Amino acid sequence: MNNLENVIKQLKELPKVVSSLAVNVLTDDEISIYQNRLEQGKYADGKDFPDYAPLTVQLKRLNGGFISQSGKIALKDTGEFYDSMKLRKEKDFAEITSDNEKAGKLVEAYGDEIFDVNDEEATEMAEQKEVEIAKEIEKFLFQ
Fold first, then answer.
1. pLDDT tens, 39-56?
2. Which residues pair with 20 in a beta bridge?
3. Is the CB of residue 122 less than 8 Å from the CB of residue 37?
4. Closest CA to 57 of 48, 72, 70, 67
5. How far are the Cα atoms of 76, 95, 99, 117 from residue 70, in angstroms, in the given order?
């Protein structure tokens, strides 16, 4: 098979593998896009987290701790939970996880949706890795 035939064959296969090629280049650095939304006190679907209780706000002001500008819970308090977030990659998708001891309690309180990434964030993550994804596609086409 000549080079052109091989490239044509690979082009036909590209739709089947493009997701995995994109996932390959993602790193934990892209989690900050997701965390920016959390800091606003919002779920991936745009719904708000509950407001901080007035006492909680007072305690955070006295003792330190993160208070979102919106006044909504942001799951950041000391930052340990945010620092523990990692990107777990599978073949065709990646998900955000945490091994922090508080993660289970946060999921119980706010649902496992706290780890969801919305379409806009996924697009922004891919755009940040546009050059790397293009290189992966090029390698795939011309292997």
1. 999 999 999 999 999 999
2. none
3. no
4. 67
5. 13, 26, 27, 20
C-alpha 122/C-alpha 104 separation (Å) is 24
- pTM (2 decimals)? 0.82
**What is the widest separation between alpha-carbon atoms in the chain?**
72
Question: Is the separation of the CB atoms in 116 and 47 below 8 Å?
Answer: no
Helix %, strand %, coil % of the chain (to 5): 60, 10, 30
Backbone dihedral region for residue 2 (phi beyond 0: left; psi -120 to 50: alpha; all else: beta): beta
Positive/negative CA dihedral, 124, 129, 133, 134: positive
In tens, the pLDDT along 96-137 reads 999 999 999 999 999 999 999 999 999 999 999 999 999 999
Burial 21-35 (b: 16+ CB within 10 A, else e): bbbebbeeebbebbb
**Average per-residue pLDDT in the chain?**
93
